[in-house]
Amino acid sequence: MVKYPQITIYIDMQSEQGNPISILGEAIVALEEYGVDEEIRGQLIKEVANKDYNHLLQTIEEWVNVSYIKAKKI
């Protein structure tokens, strides 16, 4: 179950947006914009620190909805 189901982030895995720092940043910003306390946001960072990429994705998906998109090339 997603902790914050009212929050959705959109990630293009085929761009630089698909790197771990960018994905975590998107989640943190979305949580902040929704009004989630800094201490709570820090818990997410601690949960993914020093873990692998798959763990990061899985953990973020437990916190917010993630929509994986494919950007159209112009």
TrEMBL record:
What's the superkingdom here?
Bacteria
What's this protein's name?
Uncharacterized protein
Organism per entry: Helicobacter pullorum
Q: What is the lineage of its organism?
A: Bacteria, Pseudomonadati, Campylobacterota, Epsilonproteobacteria, Campylobacterales
